[in-house]
Structure formats: C-alpha cells, structure tokens
C-alpha cells in the first residue's frame, strides 16, 4: 500500500536546539504507529513537524493528506476546556476545516454529528458543557470531533491518560475501526499493554534519533524505555 506520509532525512529543531536528526520512514493508510521515547525525546516536536507547524531544519515531510483532513488530539492537560461549548458543538466543530466556522450546519451534517455521538456513547451528554465532563467523556468528545472531520491522518498524544477503563476500551476499538477504514494513526503511548494491543509498529525516539520496531520485537527496561537491539529497517512492516 502506498505511503500517505513520508519522512525524508528529517531534522527538526526547537529554537537553536537540534531535537531530531536524519529521521526517515513511511506511514501507510490504515496503519497504527506508536511513538515512544523518554521525556524530551522529541515526540511533540515530531508531531509539530508532521502537522506543518514546525518547519524542517533539513529534509522533508511529504504528506498526501490535505491539512483539512489531518487531526491532532493534544494531551488533555494542554487543553483549555473552560470556554462555554457543549459536547455537540465540539463534535460539530469537526466540520470547520472543510465547512468554515461561520456557516450554519445543514441537516446532513447534523445527522452525521448524531451518528458520531451515538458511536461514542455521547448522546445523553450532547448539551453538557465541556467543563463539566469527566476525563473519559472529554476524550470521547474530542475523538468525536476527529470522526466528524473525517480525518485521514490522526495524531494523538497520550489519549488514555486520566481516562476510565471502559472508555479506554471504547477508544481502542474506535481507533482500530478508524484504521480499518483507512485512517493512518500515530499515537504517543507509554503503556506497554495498550501499545501491544493497538500498534502495528513502533517508532522509538531517543537522543535525537528514531528507531523502528514491531511491538512483538520490543523488550522493556524497568525504566519503561525500550531496550531491544533488534530494530527493524525504517518504514512499514506490512
Ligand atoms: N518551544 C520550545 N522552545 C525551545 N525548546 C523546546 C520547545 N519545545 C520543546 N523544546 C525542547 O525540545 C526538546 C523536545 O521536546 P518535546 O516536547 O518534543 O519532547 P517530548 O518527547 O514530547 O517530551 P514529553 O514526553 O515530556 O512530552 C526538549 O529538550 C524540549 O525542552
């Protein structure tokens, strides 16, 4: 299957600090890639590079997915959810990249919004303000927004943090379904069990470099960091 995202000898810097050097790899439609590495390894920096908000120092990011179909779900803690917006309004705002934020939604869009909320068990919460949601409810609403956007490339940063077990199961199933529908998912994960259940392959960032693994080929140090020496070649495994 053709790559929808290619990193070509990519180097990224934050200010004067070189964070990632000479990183290459391909991401296919329908693949789920776990992004792992210690604090400060450059996971968020890579996400910024892929989303096009950070320009490469060297090399290239080639993405076949238009910006309107790329979605980024940041860490919950990074979100200010105190503004007055309901679950339904958040889910419907997934239309903005293609529809614009000032046009009224049509009946077809409302029907799609209802279907998305049903898929994620959000119907009873549709008028609830975001500030009154639990961590799991909030994460379901945020994923609903990306479903509404019909994202083809979805990046998530620790989406299971502060989320109840039932919602973790629902989110894992929904992400698997999205991948089966052709979405390419890149997900920052720390939990080994979740990683094994979800990811097709793993990109480990460490000391400025990236190494590719299959979830099965990884062994973990007590620190929680990968310590396997059997990295695969860069790029997809399938
Ligand atoms: N806006 C910035 N300006 C300067 N340096 C930055 C900036 N953002 C990140 N950095 C630095 O770049 C490096 C990589 O940071 P990044 O946030 O990408 O790491 P991370 O792997 O996502 O870490 P964490 O697991 O803690 O979220 C770190 O040394 C960090 O201090």
Automatic annotation (TrEMBL):
<dbReference type="GO" id="GO:0005524">
    <property type="term" value="F:ATP binding"/>
</dbReference>
<dbReference type="InterPro" id="IPR027417">
    <property type="entry name" value="P-loop_NTPase"/>
</dbReference>
<keyword id="KW-0067">ATP-binding</keyword>
<keyword id="KW-0813">Transport</keyword>
<dbReference type="InterPro" id="IPR003593">
    <property type="entry name" value="AAA+_ATPase"/>
</dbReference>
<feature type="domain" description="ABC transporter">
    <location>
        <begin position="5"/>
        <end position="232"/>
    </location>
</feature>
<dbReference type="InterPro" id="IPR050153">
    <property type="entry name" value="Metal_Ion_Import_ABC"/>
</dbReference>
<keyword id="KW-0547">Nucleotide-binding</keyword>
<dbReference type="InterPro" id="IPR017871">
    <property type="entry name" value="ABC_transporter-like_CS"/>
</dbReference>
<dbReference type="Pfam" id="PF00005">
    <property type="entry name" value="ABC_tran"/>
</dbReference>
<dbReference type="InterPro" id="IPR003439">
    <property type="entry name" value="ABC_transporter-like_ATP-bd"/>
</dbReference>
<comment type="similarity">
    <text>Belongs to the ABC transporter superfamily.</text>
</comment>
<protein>
    <submittedName>
        <fullName>Metal ABC transporter ATP-binding protein</fullName>
    </submittedName>
</protein>
């Amino acid at each position: 299957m053709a790559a929808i995202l290619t990193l070509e000898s990519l180097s990224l810097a934050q200010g004067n600090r070189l964070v990632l050097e000479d990183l290459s790899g391909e991401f296919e439609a329908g693949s789920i890639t776990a992004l792992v590495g210690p604090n400060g390894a450059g996971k968020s920096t890579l996400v910024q590079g892929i989303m096009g908000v950070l320009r490469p120092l060297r090399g290239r990011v080639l993405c076949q997915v238009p910006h309107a179909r790329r979605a980024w779900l940041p860490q919950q803690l990074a979100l200010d959810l105190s503004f007055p917006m309901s679950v339904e309004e958040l889910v419907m705002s997934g239309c903005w990249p293609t529809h614009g934020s000032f046009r009224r939604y049509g009946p077809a869009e409302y029907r799609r919004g209802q279907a998305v909320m049903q898929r994620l068990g959000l119907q009873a919460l549709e008028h609830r303000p975001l500030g009154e949601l639990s961590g799991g409810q909030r994460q379901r609403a945020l994923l609903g927004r990306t479903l509404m956007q019909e994202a083809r490339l979805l990046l998530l940063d620790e989406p299971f943090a502060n989320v109840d077990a039932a919602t973790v199961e629902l989110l894992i199933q929904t992400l698997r379904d999205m991948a089966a529908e052709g979405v390419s998912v890149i997900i920052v994960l720390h939990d080994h069990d979740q990683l094994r259940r979800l990811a097709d392959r793993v990109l480990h960032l460490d000391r400025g470099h990236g190494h590719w693994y299959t979830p099965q080929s990884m062994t973990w140090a007590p620190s929680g960091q990968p310590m396997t020496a059997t990295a695969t070649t860069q790029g997809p495994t399938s």
